[in-house]
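pasting for ref
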Amino acid sequence: MARHPTLPLPGHGDTLTRWRRLAEIAAQDVCGIKVLEAHYDALAILTELGAPERALEGALLHAVWAAEPPDARLEFTPGVDGIGTLNGIKAWCSGADLVDAALVTAHDGDTRVLVQIMRDAPGITPVPGHWQAVGMARVESGRLSFQNVAAVQIGAAGDYLARPGFWHGGGGIAACWFGAATAIAETLRRDARAANSPHAMAHLGAIDMALSAAASLLRDTATAIDLEPDAPHATAITRVRSVVERAATDVVDRVGRALGPGPLCEDGAHAQRCADLTTFLRQSHAERDWAALGAAAQGREATWQL
């Protein structure tokens, strides 16, 4: 693990430092943070679920593959000492060509379990044709086929979703979106021609409002997690993810409107960052999260007090 700097674990008193570091990396490399955020999330999961030391042995870079669309399913057959086998298809395997190990959700009968696999284990093969992305193209995230793949169960059935850290980790994703959005906003802030355009300055002002509000909410949410680490903070995490997603989407749109097609056509790093972040943002649950926030707001009293 030496090649990756250590970050504070979420809910251990310094969540904001963790999120700030994730945002800093995202501002430099959106694809890179997609892989590294999952790695850091995996380390937190292993710690929270009390994984044995062997769970980290020989693994340099981890992934977390937990998406479960209806047309892709993994079955886990337990063996001795929690070591079993996986069979089936896993979708959205981000960084499958980069990582050394992965935490993977699977089904053991009617229950859901989390297991760890080594990427080079026999029986894992890519399913061709499932990754055609332009944004995030560097992070291969297609499907893998598993045939009698050795896997180690991590925690008890249901523990992965039941732990408060499941939600805390979602805040880390919002920090990544925020960091990438700030880098895109810098393209407008540093453009010498923008100062002579009242329309560009209006867009920059709107970006400042959006990012400042998002940063404030990220700070408040990190503080709330550290003050009450055993609570999931599900509504707060859903809110901060939704606010940051809207702010980041607004930044991409406003920078484009202010500067026109030039940066998207002539600045390769900016164009790639916009494409990568646009794809990354779709990891949000969009209107489903907004509906959940609406239901939560309707069900509580004394809402929106200062």
